[in-house]
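Run log // design_07
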C-alpha cells in the first residue's frame, strides 16, 4: 500500500495511460483486501497456515507484477495481492484485538513499515520504475516466509454470533466513508506534489515517511479526554493543506498531521466497536473490509478530478466526506455517553 502513490504515476507513464486510469490498481488491490477480510471474518479462524498462505500469495503476485508485459494483467495481479495482504492483516488484527498492548503494537506496524518503505520504494521507482519496486517487495516476502511464526491460541467458533448494536453499524459505515474520503486524495498525493512543486518520487517519499511517523507517535499516545471526532476534523485541515498549492512545507506538514490524526482516530473507533460486540474480534473483519472498500472506491471517486488536475476541488470533496465521518462518530460518542453502560456479562444492547 505504501508503494501505490509512487507506482501509479510510473505505471501511467510506462503504459501510456492516464493517472486516473492507473489509479485502478489501488482500487482493485484494496478491493481484494476488503473482500478477504469480509470472508475470513465469517469463515476462518486465525492460524499460522492462513498467515503463511497470505505471505506466499503476496510473493507470487509481486513477482508477477515485476514481470508483467501489459496493464490489464497487472490489474489482476494487484487484485490477487490484495487478497493475500487482506489475509495477513485479518490474522494479525484478530489475534491481537483482545489485548490492548499487542493491539497497539499491530496498529503501529503499518506506519512503521511506511516510514521505512516509503523512501526505499520511492527511490526504487525513481531509479528502476515500478518493476524494481515490486521485485524488492517479492524478495522481502520470500525472506518473511523463512521467519518462524506463531499465534496466541484462538478458540474455534462453532457459529458466528453478532451483536445487534445499531451504533456499531453506524461506525462501520463511518469507517468506510473515512477511508473513501481520505484515499480519494491520498493516493494522488505524489502526483499533486509533482504538479504543484515539481517534487520527484524520492522527495515525495519523505512526506509519506512523515505521515507514517506521525502515525507511530499516535499509536503510542493516550489522550482520553479528546473527542474522537476532533481527530477527523484535524484530517480535514491536513487534506486542505495537501491539496492547496501554497508551498512544499505546507504539503509536508499536512502529510505529517494527517498520519498523526488518522492513527489517533482509527484505534478509538475500533475500540468503540469492540465495546458493543459479543467478543473483541467480532467486528474486526467487517471493519477492515469496510475500510478496504472505502480505499477501493476513493481513487475511483477522485480519478476524474485528479485526471483534470483539479486538485483543490478534489481536496474539498475529500474534506466534505471527512466532516460527515466526524459527525457520525461524534454522534455515536454523544449518544453512548448518555446511556448507562451495561456490564460485560450482559451484552444485549441495541444501540
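design_07 sequence
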Amino acid at each position: 500500500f505504501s508503494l501505490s502513490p509512487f507506482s501509479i504515476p510510473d505505471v501511467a507513464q510506462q503504459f501510456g495511460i492516464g493517472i486516473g486510469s492507473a489509479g485502478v490498481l489501488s482500487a482493485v488491490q484494496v478491493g481484494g483486501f476488503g473482500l478477504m477480510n469480509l470472508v475470513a471474518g465469517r469463515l476462518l479462524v486465525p492460524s499460522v497456515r492462513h498467515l503463511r498462505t497470505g505471505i506466499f500469495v503476496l510473493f507470487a503476485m509481486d513477482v508477477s507484477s515485476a514481470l508483467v508485459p501489459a496493464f490489464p494483467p497487472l490489474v489482476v495481479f494487484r487484485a490477487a495481492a490484495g487478497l493475500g495482504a487482506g489475509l495477513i492483516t485479518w490474522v494479525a488484527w484478530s489475534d491481537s484485538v483482545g489485548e490492548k498492548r499487542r493491539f497497539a503494537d499491530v496498529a503501529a506496524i503499518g506506519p512503521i513499515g511506511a516510514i521505512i518503505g516509503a523512501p526505499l520504494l520511492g527511490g526504487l521507482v525513481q531509479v528502476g520504475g515500478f518493476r524494481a519496486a515490486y521485485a524488492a517487495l517479492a524478495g522481502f516476502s520470500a525472506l518473511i516466509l523463512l521467519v518462524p511464526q506463531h499465534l496466541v491460541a484462538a478458540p474455534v467458533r462453532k457459529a458466528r454470533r453478532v451483536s445487534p448494536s445499531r451504533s456499531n453499524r453506524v461506525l462501520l459505515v463511518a469507517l468506510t466513508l473515512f477511508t473513501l474520503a481520505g484515499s480519494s486524495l491520498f493516493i494522488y498525493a505524489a502526483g499533486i506534489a509533482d504538479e504543484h512543486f515539481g517534487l520527484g518520487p524520492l522527495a515525495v517519499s519523505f512526506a509519506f515517511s512523515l505521515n507514517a511517523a506521525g502515525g507511530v507517535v499516535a499509536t503510542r499516545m493516550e489522550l482520553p479526554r479528546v473527542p474522537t471526532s476532533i481527530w477527523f476534523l484535524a484530517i480535514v485541515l491536513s487534506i486542505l493543506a495537501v491539496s492547496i498549492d501554497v508551498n512544499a512545507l505546507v504539503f509536508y506538514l499536512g502529510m505529517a498531521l494527517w498520519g498523526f490524526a488518522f492513527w489517533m482516530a482509527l484505534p478509538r473507533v475500533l475500540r468503540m466497536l469492540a465495546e458493543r460486540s459479543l467478543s473483541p474480534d467480532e467486528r474486526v473483519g467487517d471493519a477492515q473490509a469496510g475500510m478496504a472498500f472505502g480505499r477501493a472506491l476513493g481513487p475511483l471517486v477522485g480519478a476524474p478530478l485528479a485526471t483534470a488536475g483539479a486538485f483543490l476541488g478534489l481536496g474539498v470533496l475529500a474534506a466534505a466526506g471527512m466532516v460527515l465521518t466526524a459527525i457520525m462518530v461524534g454522534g455515536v460518542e454523544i449518544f453512548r455517553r448518555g446511556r448507562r453502560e451495561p456490564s460485560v456479562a450482559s451484552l444485549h444492547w441495541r444501540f
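The mean pLDDT is 85.
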